[in-house]
Specification:
- With about 130 residues, the protein is mainly beta.
- Helix content is about 0%, strand content about 60%.
- Strands 1, 4, 5, 6, 8 and 9 form a 6-stranded mixed β-sheet that branches.
- Strand 4 and strand 5 form a beta hairpin.
- The termini are far apart.
Length: about 130
């Protein structure tokens, strides 16, 4: 089994978070957080991002793991100095913390992992 290399030259920036009440009728989806993320490649190697894993932990310690191929339906290829920007969202019912990683491969064929900074899923009424 191949090991993933942690790549420090690729930065993930949580640019902006927006919190709202959800329009869903499900009690599991009372709120929605829209997040805007940039991934910047400062590495001399080209990278192909192939998937992601998010771990959402609510204030009761309950964890939900979300994994999948691609990033918002694409497989971004970033050369040195390039940036990929996207937005997406999480539904939730309790205050939570989100963390995770992107996974991919670099131009040398090494498997890579890129940490996603933690961010909070807040209750909209609590935001001033």
């Amino acid at each position: 089994m191949e090991e993933f290399l942690k790549v420090n030259e690729i930065k993930v920036i949580i640019e902006h978070l927006e919190y709202e009440r959800s329009k869903s009728l499900s009690s599991n989806y009372l709120y929605v957080c829209f997040y805007y993320i940039s991934i910047l490649n400062f590495s001399p190697k080209t990278v192909l991002l192939k998937g992601r894993k998010w771990i959402v932990t609510n204030d009761l310690g309950e964890k939900t793991v979300i994994e999948g191929l691609g990033i918002v339906g694409t497989y971004p290829r970033l050369k040195m100095g390039e940036k990929f920007r996207y937005s997406s969202h999480h539904f939730y019912s309790r205050p939570s913390v989100v963390e995770g990683s992107y996974f991919g491969i670099n131009s040398e064929g090494s498997l890579i992992v890129i940490p996603i900074p933690k961010f909070a899923l807040l209750i909209p009424e609590d935001i001033i």
